[in-house]
């Protein structure tokens, strides 16, 4: 049995912070799209689509990194409820990072629109064009965005709780990658 690590692997930390920025940007871009009917809407949509596909690709890499590298254990004195909440919230975050881009891609496909990555790369449709499917996927995408936002807030609150209240190594394991000596 190998010795438990105290910090996440450098690639895991890089992916975590890169994707955190991308996902937060996507939530704000999505909110801006919903609130806008101006020409800005199309500009935001043209930014939202390729960023969503980039998140989809990166989350696949991130899952591979997560299952192939050792992760720090949770503190031994953490209650069973808190440990379960930590594990479940991570599953929810990963599921949403996969589901949101796929649902968005399917939604655009159901609308009969192409998913363009720039001016020349067009992704194939993953569902047939259908207005009822589009409406269902649009609602799902919106509701899951709220769930995503709330889950991110809970994740952030837990991280700050570990860093500022418990003062254990949980936050540092993702921030610095090394112990404060």
UniProtKB/TrEMBL annotation:
What InterPro entries does its record include?
Cyt_b561_bac/Ni-Hgenase, Cytochrome_b561_oxidase, Di-haem_cyt_TM
> Where are the membrane-spanning stretches?
14-38, 50-68, 88-108, 143-165
GO-annotated biological processes: respiratory electron transport chain
Residues spanning the signal sequence = none
Q: Name one Pfam family in it.
A: Ni_hydr_CYTB
Major subcellular location class: membrane
- Which ranges form a coiled coil? none
Where found in the cell? Cell membrane
Q: Where is the Cytochrome b561 bacterial/Ni-hydrogenase domain?
A: 8-177
Q: What UniProt keywords are attached to this protein's entry?
A: Cell membrane, Electron transport, Heme, Iron, Membrane, Metal-binding, Transmembrane, Transmembrane helix, Transport
Per the record, the domain of life is: Bacteria
Q: What is this protein called?
A: Cytochrome b561
Q: Which organism is it from?
A: Pseudomonas graminis
């Amino acid at each position: 049995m190998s010795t438990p690590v105290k910090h996440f692997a450098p690639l895991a930390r890089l992916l975590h912070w890169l994707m955190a920025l991308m996902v937060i940007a996507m939530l704000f871009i999505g909110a801006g799209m919903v609130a806008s009917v101006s020409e800005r809407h199309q500009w935001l949509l043209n930014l939202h689509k390729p960023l969503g596909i980039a998140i989809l690709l990166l989350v696949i890499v991130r899952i591979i990194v997560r299952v192939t590298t050792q992760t720090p254990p949770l503190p031994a004195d953490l209650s069973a409820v808190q440990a379960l909440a930590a594990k479940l919230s991570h599953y929810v975050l990963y599921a949403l990072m996969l589901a949101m881009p796929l649902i968005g891609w399917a939604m655009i496909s159901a609308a009969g629109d192409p998913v363009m990555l720039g001016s020349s790369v067009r992704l194939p449709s993953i569902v047939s064009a259908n207005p009822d499917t589009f409406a269902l996927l649009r609602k799902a995408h919106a509701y899951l965005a709220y769930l995503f936002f709330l889950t991110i807030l809970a994740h952030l609150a837990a991280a700050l709780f570990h860093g500022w209240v418990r003062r254990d190594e949980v936050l540092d394991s993702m921030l610095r990658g090394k112990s404060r000596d």
